[in-house]
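Annual report, structural modelling task.

Input specification for the adenosine-5'-triphosphate complex:
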Amino acid sequence: MFAVENISFGYPSSGSLLTDLSFTINKGDVACLLGPNGAGKTTLLRCLLGINKVQSGSIKIKGRRIGDITAKELACAMAYVPQAATTVFPHRVLDIVVMGRTPHVGFTAVPTDEDYAMAEESLAELGISHLADCQFSRISGGERQLTLIARALTQRAELFIMDEPTSSLDYGNQVRILRVIDKLAKQGYSIIMTSHFPNHAFLLCNKVLIMKNGKITAMGTPEEVVTDQILSELYTTKVRIVELDDGVSDKLKVCVPMLT
Ligand SMILES: Nc1ncnc2c1ncn2[C@@H]1O[C@H](COP(=O)(O)OP(=O)(O)OP(=O)(O)O)[C@@H](O)[C@H]1O
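The model returned the following structure:
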């Protein structure tokens, strides 16, 4: 559905950064991009979104290069979920969520009752209807992240591109967001997300891309690539993978950074 083929990219000021990256994302995939600070994860997401124009290679959605499709078509194919930064503007949550309709109605058009109904539907889907009239700047980080996911749902795109969806969230809110992502994937949406938490890969991802210095150095299932050796090399610190009984079905793997 989404194919990245041999792309390379560099910022004019700093030369080559991403080198010859290739991978595919299929319907229902939850792909986790792991890598240390500065590896190029956000830069890659910006390439996928068409914000950074790749210097070689191609990015295709259902066989069509993203450069050959209109901005509106692109926005209908993929939705960006940024980190849940706050805003100084006193927007209501519902107003933020209805912004997901912008690619469909145009930047100057006023959203219709139908657009608001879709926004309300997305809020209900994520269990946050009660926040509709709250000010976005006054809700918690977890609630803001759910609002931004609701906005992406309202956009009706099939692929969600999420930049550290659980950053600065407490454990409870991390799990809440991960459950939402898992549910979206089971409904057939595809997700590519960056994370600084390799454990998230074990919890819900079926694909992991390991990225270092602008290159994908390993790719596969969490079991294949989230290993002691790969993580220790990736983060240049000793990391152990241990198994624990999750009390429900199977053994759950977890990553633990070691101080010694
Ligand atoms: N607009 C820009 N112009 C020039 N260099 C940039 C720009 N944006 C990012 N960079 C550089 O590109 C490199 C990769 O940055 P990027 O934000 O993609 O990494 P990242 O893996 O997302 O890091 P983090 O985990 O810290 O968010 C860094 O060295 C960064 O300084």
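The chain is about 35% helix and 30% strand.
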